[in-house]
Amino acid sequence: MNIQRFYAPTSREALAKARLAFGEGTLILSNRPTATGVEIVATAEDVLASVDPSAAATGAAASAARRQPAKTATPSTQALVEADADQLAMSTLSFQDYVRERMLRRRHEALKEQKAEPAPAISMATSQNFNDIIQAARAEMPAPAPVPVRVAPAVKPQPAPAMPVQAVSQGIMDELHAMSELIEEKFNTLTWLGQARQHPIQSNLMLKLIRAGFSPSLSRAILEKMPEQIGATEAMRWVMDVLERNIKTDAGAQPLHEEGGIYALIGATGVGKTTTAAKLAGQCVQQYGPGSVGLITLDTYRIGAHEQLRTYGRMLGVVAHLAHDQAALQDLLGLLANKKMILIDTTGIAPRDPRKRGMLEVLDLPNVNRLLVLNAGGHGDTLDDVVTSFRSGGTQQAILSKIDEAVKLGPALDAAIRHQLLLRGVTTGQKVPEDWEPADAAKLVRLSMRAPAKSAFDPKASDLNFFFTQAAHSQPAQGRIHA
Amino acid sequence: MLDDFHHQGAGLRSIMPATAPRVIAVTSHGDPSSELPLLWSLCASWTDLGYSVAVLDATSAESETNPGLKQLLEATYWQADAQAEQTSWVVHPAAQGFERLCNQNDDGKLPLQSLASLFHQHDVIVIFAPAAFFATFFPDSGIQPLLAVSTNEISVLTAYHALKQMLLNARLRPTIISIVSDLTRSASTLSMNKSLQDCAMTFLGHQLNTLTVHVPSADAGTSDDTKSLALRLLENAVPLYRTATVESLARSH
Q: Comparing C-alpha atoms, which of B201, B214, B231, B189 is closest to residue B50?
């Protein structure tokens, strides 16, 4: 086969070269850009005819028709002779043949144009920039190339086993579903933490509140409402103001011993109910005399309970009575009706002690107020449990005991805020009656926010995320527990 | 380790009222079967509660072999000599001593300051005397003498007589105690109480409130009822200051 490559700076020049070589019967097989211009691969129609005999006849006539005009280029007699020959040939050529030839010629030209389309600008008779044409060709050329590459990998796995794919898909779906749920759960928290990180003052205050012992929920509720454009010092003051305003005390009212009435001190074990009763009695005796106070104990369980209260009573000149049941209590309340203040000491009971209900029922008498004594140094969950289990109707009055022993006041104040407790006083030590103070919200908040010593239980800034992580609910397998 | 002067209640000393014995009146109306066991139980309860008790028995007279209030007033007898007793409280016969004390005053009233001086070291002074004694020496004082009533009819009659004396003559309001030694007899006790209350209301115009107290036998110790009664009596008792007078008792009540 006579196939030749022609190189030229432009496609027009390359075509001209091909035509010179093969004449009018030039067939363009390919064209592509090169570094120096254009490369065209061309051949003659004879070659194509030899490859495809069906095309030979049409091509031969077409080439003969093209050849004839090419031969007219010979001058003088030869040209005349050939012109006469053409005329003779035409005179013998029927009209049908003529039409057929003309059609073949057109078809051939159209075929030539189609071959020139991949580099459309190459076959053109246009004035388009060759570089633009090359760019367009390059843009189109990669498209078909990857197809066989893409198809192959896509096709190959399909015949692979279908069952494992389904199982993997289901597992993946389950994991995705679980992840989606987890993300939904943590979205709000992470969003808030992200905002907190963007606001370092908030983040610092959050850390400070949690280190002081306040619950993450309360801390977050406070800081969410903090004004944005606020400095560090003002922010701290703002937080303390909010805490102060939310701690209810009897600051605007009379203190307990001046107000008078019947008060039953209730609470868990070891919180200081008896000592607190002695302090309150001392306050009242100091102001109104020993005849103004009545002391009753319901504690028949703890060894020495009555004796302890009786000892305090003797020192105050007050008789400490003992009541075993509600009838006896009611009788004693009648006996002591002329007293300004009657204090009822009760048995310390754990929140989940079944006796708690019975003890609280004994106190279910008119005009008997309950004072819940809370250990200020207690754990937040413990305080929550106590407050919830000893809750009575109406406003719950409370006394915070052992303020001096509490390393962190945050949990106690947190419980007081969330449960809307009315603080009637705080005890600050063992001494009777000196270690008693009225509840001062500002002072309590200052105490709670003082910089404590380093503690192993204090979180770091990087640990804050864990405070907002929901606890895992999944139960470990039995085997793992034993392991 | 804990010194007497240094403990958590040391601060109470600054507000501790002046110590003074509390006077409790127990009426004798001729029913020793109910009065004496009750008095015994009360004294035992007070002692158990840590109180020092001195009983001045105005129904018994002093003698050379049995000295009492008269000898104490004459300073010929010391209370320390009376400590060799089997009980934890002291009992002094005081009939002649009270008479001497009343004769010392022109108004015939009992000079309580003398009692306060003599018995200041005790916490409780029990005056066990007939109703007439209280009516005579403690009129309008505000004290509430204890009047024990047992279940027999004679006791109810004598108790009513004593009640009438104290109520009408001295404007004293006794505390009526129904003694029950046997719990199975509580029904008869209730009926006795009702009779007494009805009579007091009908004839004396006084509404009586009675307390029922179970007094066990002497060997059984004290009961919760007697302990509660002991504390109740302490609550209503009058402190006997050294400057006390019968009139001041009424004001301090």
A: B231
Q: Is A198 exposed, middle or buried (0-12, 13-18, 19+ CB in 10 A)?
A: exposed
- Name the DSSP class of A161: -
Chain B partners within 8 Å of A431 (Cβ): 8, 10-11
Q: How far is B3 from chain A (nearest CA, A)?
A: 15
Interface confidence, given as ipTM, is 0.78
Question: Each residue of B188-199: pLDDT tens digit?
Answer: 677 777 778 888
Question: How far does A413 lie from chain B, in Å, by closest CA?
Answer: 27
Please say whether the dihedral angle defined by the alpha carbons of residues A186, A188, A194 and A199, taken in this order, is positive or negative.
Answer: negative
For A97-137, how does the pLDDT look when each residue is reduced to its tens digit (9 = 90+)?
555 666 677 777 777 777 765 544 434 334 444 445 445 44
Q: What is the pTM of this model?
A: 0.66
Cα separation, A158 vs B39, in Å, equals: 108
In tens, the pLDDT along A130-172 reads: 445 445 445 444 444 433 333 344 444 444 455 566 777 888 9
Length of chain A: 483
Whether residue B43 contacts residue B89, with contact meaning beta carbons closer than 8 Å, is answered with yes
Cβ within 8 Å, pair B11-A282: yes
Measured N-to-C along each axis, helices A200-212 and A441-449 cross at an angle, to the nearest 10 degrees, of 100
